[in-house]
Amino acid sequence: MQDIRWKAFWLIVSLTFICLIVWAANDAETALITFSVGITLYLAHHLFWLAKLLAWYKKPDLNAMPLGSGAWEDVFATIYHEQRRHNRSKIQLSSALDRFRHAASALPDGVVLLDDDNKIEWCNKPAEQQLGLSLKQDINQPIVYLVRNTDFIQYLKHHVDIDPIKLKSWIKSDITLEIQLVAFGSNQKLLISRDISQVEKLEHMRRDFIANVSHELRTPLTVVGGFLETLSDMDGAVPESLRNYFGMMQDQTSRMRLLIEDLLTLSQLESGATSPDEAELDVPALLNTILNESKSLSNGRHTITLDANPNLSIIASAQELHSAFGNLVGNAIRYTPEGGSITMHWDENNQEAVFSVIDTGLGIEQQHIDRLTERFYRVDRSRSRETGGTGLGLSIVKHILSRHQGRLEITSEFGKGSTFKAVFPKSRIVSK
């Protein structure tokens, strides 16, 4: 640009110098006419090449690029080099896009590229098959117009901030899909669909197996436990030298019965075969019942207190919340040494209903907290055997809270105690 300006400057200076000579040789009128003609020719030259540039721009072909003259030679040369650079970048981007699409097409999972308005920019073959799309027909169409599933549309509204969801296919009833949104690029999203039908079948088989085995074991264990208890109560039936062994057998039989009951409860919750029997629940009254049960379980070894807001109730299943809250308090009793304290707290916080169990127990190291709700996960296996835990309590709590749109929050400091919170959304709170 600097060269163009200098060329224009020297041209005008030269024209002015010529006009001064003409003025000196003739008169001012002749000099003015000469200057006007020179400026007119200069403008005509620019308008000519500007028209050439406009004509080329409408059909930009590097092979037909005008050469230009004067200042326009530099302009056309610059445009030529920039256009070549742009073409190379376009080829590279197109090649990268083709590689991405080729790789995405090879994936067994469905992939749909959505813009900020959830319009389809591209999708692969598995996505067409799983979601009932057609790239040729549906490109630039809002996906909510094509996938008319209420749960799917509701999931899209939450953008990418929640976990994947499972949906029964609206195309084939025997197929289960897992749908997930992932942020991608600038205001774009990847929608990933995965066929998890086989996984779901295996999970269903696992749940059925556990439920059936647990159910079949419950009766013989009850019989064995009953005979052991009867023999222990009969005078002279059990020699004193064997009574200790009978006590051990009774303890292990009771522990097995508890394990089976927990397995059956967990299987029922995981299957989701029945919805919670929900109604307005007087939580403070329920917590008073749990307080009495926990004092009986503690047998005077701990200080147990309850602080409950008497005006705070929620819509929930009394049976399920009794199980969930009882498990949280029972765990606190088992893992708090004798002489420790356990506090139950029920109140509203940030428009959510919160039940907290605060203990002064052993505490939990940070690396274990994320895995506490896994089935049979124990921080200290020997301690769990001593306290009679089954390793399923927190799994049951997590599933019950999930069925009530709630969540479990755990904070702990090793050696100082733990806090377990069952948090329920505002939608479940009953206004008083």
From TrEMBL:
Q: Which cellular compartments is it found in?
A: Cell membrane
Question: What is the catalytic activity of this protein?
Answer: ATP + protein L-histidine = ADP + protein N-phospho-L-histidine
Q: Name one Pfam family in it.
A: HATPase_c
**GO BP term (any one):** cellular response to phosphate starvation
Q: In the record, which residues are listed under signal peptide?
A: none
* One cellular-component annotation, GO: plasma membrane
**Main location group:** membrane
Q: What is its EC number?
A: 2.7.13.3
Using the record's annotation, list all stretches that form the Histidine kinase domain. 212-428
Going by the record, the broad EC class of this enzyme is transferase
Report TM segments.
Answer: 7-25, 31-51
Record has Transport as a keyword: yes
Keyword hit for Phosphoprotein: yes
Could you list this entry's UniProt keywords, alphabetically sorted: ATP-binding, Cell membrane, Kinase, Membrane, Nucleotide-binding, Phosphate transport, Phosphoprotein, Transferase, Transmembrane, Transmembrane helix, Transport, Two-component regulatory system
Which CDD domains does the record associate with it?
A: HisKA, PAS
Among the GO molecular function terms of this UniProt record, one is:
ATP binding
Q: What does this protein do?
A: Member of the two-component regulatory system PhoR/PhoB involved in the phosphate regulon genes expression. PhoR may function as a membrane-associated protein kinase that phosphorylates PhoB in response to environmental signals.
Q: What is this protein called?
A: Phosphate regulon sensor protein PhoR
Taxonomic path:
Bacteria, Pseudomonadati, Pseudomonadota, Betaproteobacteria, Nitrosomonadales
Question: What gene, per UniProt, encodes this protein?
Answer: phoR
